[in-house]
Amino acid sequence: MDAQHRHAEVGVHRTGVLVGPGLLRAGGVEGLHRFADRHRCGVVNTWGAKGVFRWDDPRHHGTAGLQALDFELAGLGAVEVLVTSGLDPAEVTTRPWEGRVEVIDVAPADLATAVLDIPPGVVDRPALYDDLAAVVGPLYQRPGSPPARAAALAAGLAPGGLVVAEPGLVGFWVARTLPTSVAGSVVVPAAGGPEAAWRRAAEAAASGRPVTLVAPSPPPDDLTGVHVEVWDDVDLDPAALIAVAGPIVAWPDLAT
Fold first, then answer.
1. Regarding the domain with residue range 3-126, which homologous superfamily does it belong to in the CATH classification?
2. 3-state secondary structure string, the chain?
3. pTM flag (> 0.90)
4. Which regions of the chain are under pLDDT 50?
5. Where do the domains of the chain lie?
């Protein structure tokens, strides 16, 4: 079944939760965990909030915003209530819930104590997680594939370390497949192009963090203290993922 019809059969969850990078900046991860447990809800994050739950935590329902059908596959267009927190509009690339569901935005600082009158959540993962995992899962075992390279980055991440990827196909694969265990340990800028990634990497290195920049070609500037990993020999063809979740819609100003 192609991506244009698959999302029509996504199971309905009565309450959805979607969070973005503002949650990390506000230090709201622990509060989110309490909220999810209190309301028995799984959580979908945009790619700027990777790591709010470990990749294998059952409360982690997937990373969204990268492809056209992400939010549909997450079931967020068919919930009764959508709880949001810390979203960045640049990472909310489609809004299938617009005009269809009640949206409750909760400040990250309020999640720890918020008790909402909302329908019971579910912990069953949506198609966004399961269908994409079916595609990328085998690729983790294929040496040199983007998921295998992303997994190696995660495994080699030093304490306090950061992976920064340039927007585009390299950033897409990192944002989609890097198995994140620590919130704030991976960044793919939503705007600003490659230069934004270079700045973020340089700033983090200057602050003393171990930093790896992932890029399709060597950056033109000397980034002091930044380890650069060039993916110029990696097959970045996203066709198999596009067949599941539609075209890449992140970074519309870039040719992905």
1. TPP-binding domain (3.40.50.1220)
2. CCHHHHHHHCCCCCEEEEECCHHHHCCCHHHHHHHHHHHCCCEEEEHHHCCCCCCCCCCEEEEECCECCHHHHCCCCCCCEEEEECCCHHHCCCCCCCCCCEEEECCHHHCCCCCCCCCCCCCCCCHHHHHHHHHHHHHHHCCCCHHHHHHHHHHCCCCCCEEEECCCHHHHHHHHHCCCCCCCCEECCCCCHHHHHHHHHHHHHHCCCCEEEEECCCCCCCCCCEEEEECCCCCCCCHHHHHHHCCECCCCCCCC
3. yes
4. 1-11
5. 3-126, 132-245
pLDDT at residue 92, rounded to an integer: 97
Output the pLDDT for position 158: 94
